[in-house]
Design goal:
By secondary structure, the protein is an alpha/beta fold. It has a single domain, classed as Alpha-Beta Barrel (TIM Barrel), CATH 3.20.20. The chain is about 45% helix and about 15% strand. Strands 1-2-3-6-7-8-9-10 form an 8-stranded parallel beta barrel, surrounded by 6 helices. α9 links the parallel β8 and β9. Bound molecules: 1,3-dihydroxyacetonephosphate (13P).
């Protein structure tokens, strides 16, 4: 019981109004793709520079309640030798950790994947707890195509998420469960809404079946969007309506909070859409952002891997965090923001 009380405190801290989460949890391979954008080779020192600049940016604590890290970065330190979790804790930002080990194809299921990473998970969690992590993330990937997602793919990913969430809560770590419905494709928004609702319904039925404490859990969801190849793109209000309808159909009200991934939307669209969702008024769950690309891209394009640009890039990071913190409250004014693209 004591552990659960602590987890409820963690949820409340992560879902503080006017704040959100930075997902700086790219695997070493994916971090390389970010560095490629600024023409830096994917080497440990460059990954460290990248994360150090993000985590030490002055003022981010005003807008960030948590930062999700990856196995190599939670063990990493600043040039001065301060461990990254301590850098965040000193600012009052909660350290988090991505614990899944990526996806594997499901044989016989065209293009569908299942997330790996349950082996030794309890031991890994205990170690991450000692390193300062108080929340975690596991990402499942759901693809929309003519004959996907299949129920089999949705179900096995839901079971993996439930098992991960059980183990996290046993250790006293708040699980973020992330079933990402992928934006790529030519589906329309209605199809995305149907798929998202079904995925969330099966996920929550499974979490309940496995006796996961929903109040000590956060859902990380995609927004309901027409596929990036679909010629009809929706307005922020349409996206907000479709997304909230899917949640109300599927997400029990006791869930501790809902956070969004940006999913390949431009930073500006991700911010505008969060703003439209907040403008729909109070919901049964606190809702905020947990973006990676939508927050990191403005930083990276300013930084360009050059130390001369570092200060300016940190200011851009702060700007992206601030705009999303405003959007979380429905107070973002896109027409006045010339910096986010
Ligand atoms: P994006 O915001 O770039 O979609 O990343 C969020 C995330 O955590 C994906 O797992």
């Amino acid at each position: 019981m004591k552990r659960n009380a602590k987890m409820y405190e963690t949820v409340a801290a992560l879902m503080t109004p006017g704040k959100g989460i930075l997902a700086a949890d790219e695997s070493d391979g994916t971090a390389g793709k970010r560095l490629e954008m600024v023409h830096l080779p994917n080497e440990p020192e460059n990954r460290q520079d990248f994360r150090e600049l993000l985590f030490t940016a002055p003022g981010i604590e005003e807008y960030l309640s948590g930062v999700i890290m990856y196995d190599s970065s939670i063990r990493n330190s600043t040039d001065d030798g301060m461990p990254f979790p301590d850098v965040l804790l000193a600012k009052g930002i909660l350290p988090g950790i991505k614990v899944d080990m990526g996806t594997k194809e499901m044989d016989g299921f065209r293009g569908e994947v299942v997330t790996q990473g349950l082996d030794n998970l309890e031991e890994r969690f205990n170690e991450y707890y000692d390193l300062g992590a108080r929340f975690a993330k596991w990402r499942a990937v759901i693809l929309i195509d003519e004959d996907t997602p299949t129920d089999a793919a949705i179900e096995i990913n839901a079971v993996m998420l439930a098992r991960y969430a059980q183990i996290a809560q046993r250790v006293g770590i708040v699980p973020i469960v992330e079933p990402e419905v992928i934006f790529a494709g030519d589906h329309d928004i209605l199809r995305a809404e149907m798929v998202t609702s079904r995925v969330l319904q099966i996920l929550f039925q499974t979490l309940i079946k496995y006796k996961v404490d929903l109040g000590a859990l956060i859902l990380k969801s995609s927004m309901v969007l027409a596929g990036d190849m679909n010629s009809e793109q929706s307005t922020p209000a349409q996206i907000a309506n479709a997304t909230l309808r899917a949640f109300h159909m599927s997400v029990p009200y006791e869930v501790g909070g809902i956070v969004f991934l940006s999913g390949g939307q431009t930073p500006k669209r991700a911010t505008e859409n969060l703003n439209a969702i907040a403008k729909m008024g109070g919901q049964p769950w606190p809702i905020t952002f947990s973006y990676s690309r939508a927050i990191e891209e403005p930083f990276l394009t300013t930084w360009q891997g050059k130390s001369a640009n570092a200060e300016e890039a940190q200011k851009m990071l702060l700007h992206a965090c601030k705009m999303n913190a405003l959007a979380q409250q429905g107070r973002y004014e896109p027409e006045k923001d010339s910096k986010l693209k």
